[in-house]
């Protein structure tokens, strides 16, 4: 069972991350739906830990970041507060950044293109969106008003605002990463603008690097070298 999962681990993580993007906007408004949403988030964290934790040092690092992150997710659900939301943003950003780094290491060390490498590249791209989501939550929590968020102006409950912040910034992160930029959410402060521009640049550079890496691996192992390179006589 373990070997079967390891051969498909990036597929599982990609599915969890993509599902999180799909269900979050629909499940973040009500308490019971929020509990279901936290189950999806917990599943994404578990998939990430299982992906990066096969080596001892990776397992320790994943546990050190994963356990507090998982705890804060559920604490923010039952006992929301500004401090808890801020701490959750810090730990989730750190955990997903660690996971993305380990995935990138796997892609760089790959010797040939496999399904796992392709899905790993997709996971890395989606994880960038998650990292910046919680960076934006952190910025808005520390400096309220850093972003123009019309949908949150009427929200006074911390619990509702906290879940809505994540949902809004998950959307904003996705459109910024892909450089779509609809303009309905606007960075106001210099720090918010700087972080937003960095995500846009990271998105473009990541696509260029990952495509170049995958194409390079494919050409290196699937295109036969010329006769002169093989030392064949004419």
In words, what does this structure look like?
With 234 residues, this protein is mainly α. The chain has one domain. Helices cover 78% and strands 2% of the residues. The chain contains nine helices and two strands, in the order ααααααβαβαα. Helix 2 packs antiparallel against helix 3, helix 3 runs antiparallel to helix 4 and helix 6 crosses helix 7. The N terminus is likely disordered.
Helical coverage, percent range: over 70%
Query: How widely separated are the two ends?
Result: 52 Å
Strand order, main sheet: write it out.
Answer: 1-2
Rounded mean pLDDT is 77
* Poorly predicted ranges: 1-6
SS-derived structural category: mainly alpha
The number of strands is: 2
- Count of individual domains: 1
The biggest sheet amounts to: 2 strands, antiparallel
Question: What share of residues are in beta strands?
Answer: under 5%
Principal-axis shape equals globular
From the alpha-carbon coordinates, what is the Rg to the nearest angstrom? 20 Å
- The total count of helices amounts to 9
Order of helices and strands: HHHHHHEHEHH
């Amino acid at each position: 069972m373990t070997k079967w999962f390891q051969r498909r681990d990036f597929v599982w993580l990609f599915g969890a991350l993509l599902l999180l993007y799909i269900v979050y906007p629909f499940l973040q408004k009500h308490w019971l739906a929020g509990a279901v949403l936290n189950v999806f988030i917990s599943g994404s964290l578990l998939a990430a830990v299982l992906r990066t934790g096969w080596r001892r040092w990776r397992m320790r690092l994943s546990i050190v970041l994963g356990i507090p992150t998982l705890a804060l997710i559920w604490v923010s659900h039952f006992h929301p507060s500004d401090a808890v939301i801020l701490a959750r943003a810090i730990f989730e950003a750190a955990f997903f950044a660690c996971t993305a780094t380990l995935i990138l290491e796997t892609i760089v060390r790959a010797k040939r293109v496999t399904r796992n490498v392709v899905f790993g590249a997709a996971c890395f791209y989606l994880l960038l969106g998650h990292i910046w989501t919680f960076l934006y939550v952190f910025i808005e929590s520390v400096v309220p008003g850093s972003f123009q968020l019309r949908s949150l102006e009427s929200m006074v409950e911390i619990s509702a605002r906290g879940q809505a912040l994540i949902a809004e910034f998950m959307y904003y992160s996705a459109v910024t990463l892909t450089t779509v930029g609809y303009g309905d959410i606007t960075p106001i402060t210099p720090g918010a603008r700087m972080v937003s521009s960095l995500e846009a640049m990271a998105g473009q550079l990541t696509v260029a690097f990952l495509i170049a890496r995958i194409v390079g691996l494919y050409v290196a192992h699937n295109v036969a070298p010329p006769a002169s390179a093989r030392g064949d006589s004419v």
